[in-house]
Amino acid sequence: MSTRRNFIGTSLAGMAALTLLPAVNSFANTGNGYLREPKSKFKLRFALVSDIHYGQPGTDFAANTGNMVKWLNQDHDKNHLDMVIINGDLVHNCPDLLPEIKSRYFDKLSVPYHTIPGNHDFADASVWKNNFGYEDKYTVEFGDIGFVLANTADTKGTYICPDNVFIKAALDKFADKKIVLVVLHIPPINWNKNDVFVDCPETIDLLHRYPNVKAAFHGHDHLLDGVRYTGNKFPHFFDSHIGGNWGTNYKGYRIVEIDEQNAIYTYQVNASQNPVLNSNKF
């Protein structure tokens, strides 16, 4: 199977100073860490991680999840993180494992974290609230930055469109925010016939309709670690995977940094330090 890499290091025209930085081979330097040296102070720096698949048979899911916590805590120690967003597929087809992954791993993160279900979590609003204290769709505010998070699957793992009534209400509520970011495990569009996403034209229309909505973030496809676009260059970012038995040759996560001038920077971290970032089979 071919793997597709889409690391881009140039500014996006018309995208409100949103810049993609090259991938970082994290923890490859002396002292087991990379160090960001920004030109201006960040008012928000956070990580997005997804697809842990805790409990999947035949995988070292405990080690993978432990590594995730270690990598993120190291990143926080070296560079500071304000929060972590865990974007779906926390567990593998067994929602009964959600309390275990929360208490053994997530609660050991050094920074606040937020979660949203994926199709392998088999979760709805009640399951999510019982485990995390909030439902499967909600908003987060960080000053003049707003986040909209919503579920994209049902309790059987069937792909569904997010609750667009909720999405619209959240975007209306955040109309005065400088920046709004949307987090959905499964992207709301099939870009090509090989994708395993779901077409949600109403969701896409909402993302395009509000000028302060700057990007959407997704997991789900473990092979994707870059960016795709809808409409007039609206970016959808992916973050590889932490667990599971398929995907990119490395395990990693995405960093997003927002400076005092509301310029947004994002890049992918090769946390497992696997040097193979591009491979093809002929």
From TrEMBL:
Keywords per UniProt: Signal
Gene Ontology terms, MF aspect: hydrolase activity
Pfam families documented for this protein: Metallophos
Top-level taxon of origin: Bacteria
Signal peptide: 1-28
Calcineurin-like phosphoesterase domain span: 44-222
SUPFAM superfamilies: Metallo-dependent phosphatases
Keyword Metal-binding in annotation: no
Keyword Glycoprotein: no
Protein name: Metallophosphoesterase
Record organism: Mucilaginibacter ginsenosidivorax
